[in-house]
Amino acid sequence: MAKEPKRIFLTEDEMPTQWYNVRADMKNKPAPMLHPGTHKPLTLEEMTPIFCEELCKQELDNDTRFIDIPEEVQEFYKIFRPSPLIRAYQLEKALGTPAKIYYKFEGNNTSGSHKLNSAAAQVYYAKKQGLTSLTTETGAGQWGTALSMASAFYNIPLTVYMVKVSYEQKPFRKSIIETFGADIVPSPSNTTKVGREINEKFPGTGGSLGCAISEAVEKAVTTDNCRYVLGSVLNQVILHQSIIGEEAKIQMAKVDAYPDIVIGCAGGGSNLGGIMSAFMRDKLTGAANPEIIAVEPASCPSMTRGKFAYDFADTGHVCPLAKMYTLGSEFMPSPSHAGGLRYHGMSPIVSQLYHDGYLKAVAVEQTKVFEAAELFAKTETILPAPESSHAIRGAIDEALKCKETGEAKTILFNLTGTGFFDMTAYQAYNDGTMSDFIPTDEDLEKGFASLPQIEE
Amino acid sequence: MAKEPKRIFLTEDEMPTQWYNVRADMKNKPAPMLHPGTHKPLTLEEMTPIFCEELCKQELDNDTRFIDIPEEVQEFYKIFRPSPLIRAYQLEKALGTPAKIYYKFEGNNTSGSHKLNSAAAQVYYAKKQGLTSLTTETGAGQWGTALSMASAFYNIPLTVYMVKVSYEQKPFRKSIIETFGADIVPSPSNTTKVGREINEKFPGTGGSLGCAISEAVEKAVTTDNCRYVLGSVLNQVILHQSIIGEEAKIQMAKVDAYPDIVIGCAGGGSNLGGIMSAFMRDKLTGAANPEIIAVEPASCPSMTRGKFAYDFADTGHVCPLAKMYTLGSEFMPSPSHAGGLRYHGMSPIVSQLYHDGYLKAVAVEQTKVFEAAELFAKTETILPAPESSHAIRGAIDEALKCKETGEAKTILFNLTGTGFFDMTAYQAYNDGTMSDFIPTDEDLEKGFASLPQIEE
């Protein structure tokens, strides 16, 4: 038998033309978002001043299983999709594992990450609605880069609020976002009311995704014909990212493979949600039973140590509330933590599925993540982003278990980004100056104290 | 008729298994390298203390048309090859040109460039010979990164001498090369005799590829069981890079296309040599007659304003002499010039073909190159390296000519690298602080004064 190829491609004809809406197959639907003032489920009318209309509909749609990808978005996708599925032969060999490891590589575009999958869709719908500007936030910079790319493509002005600590750690993100013609503002800033308040309350703060969201939303609702877009957490984002898993499933079928284990890193949920949805469908319908693993940073452990509760999506409490695993909107991750995955909460879809036992979560320490990243780079010739490297760590740990037991499990993980903008963190790891931070129970209690009291 | 796909892939089975040696079809062979002391053609015995043996044989082989790619190198290639051929639909649309533009994208690996094609081969032969360490130089950092990657893969210690001005402009190159376990030294350094001499002669110099080569060669010949490897200029490098054009030709045939124009950027020749060889074969054998265009920087115009003469390959004059288009080994490009393409000479193969009228050369200014790069990034979602952006500039200029004449020419160019490590230059362009430098005739005369007197 011929050896399976290293990289498994799809042709454009084989590319999925629909996104899969995992909510349609969930017995317990994710809880609805609540209005921050009334604590009542948010209506379409209340959402449309913040988000563009079509996206609000997608956000609220718990029933349609498959949603057509507009032709214009398919055209945009074809610039960088289908993405390759790669067999990690060299990593397997280095580990000496009987496991078969596959990864879906989503880093082959300027944005350097999977975020472009949702950016392409969201900006398209905004353009179609006739909006004249957009705002967003970015943590590590992947989403901001992807959105600036999509905004350049559809020619809509964009303002990006970037978490200050990342802005300072990654100066080149500014250059790239500006190259695509967008404005970039370190957050918390003095350009919004909520930013000024946060700066006053936490002087010298490095910011958080929660702060940046508050600022971007305020800017959107106070600007004519402008809306806010978000790259993670939301149901619509998990929907758009579903294309990752749909493609991966077809690619694996081409080599007669099906994963025993599916692994994604977990920050807000776009990465894990993207790779898992197609396989979660099989789990929910009983067609198959793969193990699904979320890997989160020990420094920001929203699933493994958080609470499943309604919480503010943002630090400034201007956004709707979502029911999710959360550390509390005032939880501030250590600035020593590199890259993204700093969000206090978790996608309501991923949270509900975790709560219902459909996936498991593990937390890993930063230096262990970079150890995995370096091994991966040396063996597979791709330098991974720190966020994605959490998934690599998870995959390596599972493959090492197989080495002990002798099981030849099939492992699939999502490699969503390249680390070219994370060399400061790699240098710290190389120099031995990188530290691990694990919040104490007291740290967590402070975050939990900021949870709102909601009667369900 | 179905629309041609955006990206044209090859399967592993369709991947070429031989490199093409363009010298075999050249009527006028490239002139032999000369010993720097005797000025006599260099023998195999004189070369083997510097380069590894198999590579010396390839360097001297003007006759074998096709050379088998060793199976082990093919396995390494499969980690990142075949590379996609991409139709630049979005760029074509933005330009409003009737031309069809294709590009071969070689940036999908950690090294971020095509340099890995030759690195994989050279380190393999070194390992096979039982060498215990290697040295090299790097300009923009692409070659150094690729070689550190290949050295990690084959587990051979490596020292990289990096042109000081690039080392300072691109601090993250250090991090990535160190991540792969190699040592990196800014050149000219005080670790070699020749480096100390150059520092004395040109205090405060930002260095040049010529200096870095001298240092790396000195280090190799003064270290036991160590050899020097080089990422451009040499015949063997053009040989290994031929895989780019061989793949591109098969890919174009899949959509019934053949280029009217083939474009590569020209620094030392690895980029242009890689894309053009397969098409040059058709030109040399009379099978077809595509136009082949080398695009070089106006700040370092070795073909358009240089002399075709024997010259030192390095500033320290420890290397063999090569007959090539050159600005003289003491020509120092302006430090304001971003990225690579700073070498004073040009591959002897490319030089001879240029001299014999088989290709044309154009020189372009830096700001025009970045203008093209930005348009390309916004339309095609790949942020190109400054070096490759010279080819983009060339392709855009040809496509704009087509717009004027109404001709629907087919243009193929080589996109050899991503610009993720060049954001300092992009930022300068965004800020409007980037300047163009064109050497005066006097500047050139100074370089020419360093040409050796060789009787042919």
CATH topology type of the largest domain in chain A: Rossmann fold
Indicate the CATH class of the largest domain in chain A: Alpha Beta
Low-confidence regions of chain A: none
- Largest binding interface between chains: A-B, 44 and 44 residues
Count of separate DSSP helical elements of chain A: 17
Taking the alpha carbons of the first and last residues of chain A, their distance comes to: 58 Å
Helix content of chain A: 40-55%
Q: How does the major sheet of chain A shape up?
A: 7 strands, mixed
Coarse morphology of chain A: globular
Average pLDDT rating of chain A = 94
The domain tally of chain A reads: 2
CATH A-level architecture of the largest domain in chain A? 3-Layer(aba) Sandwich
Radius of gyration of chain A over all CA atoms, rounded: 20 Å
The count of β-strands of chain A is 15
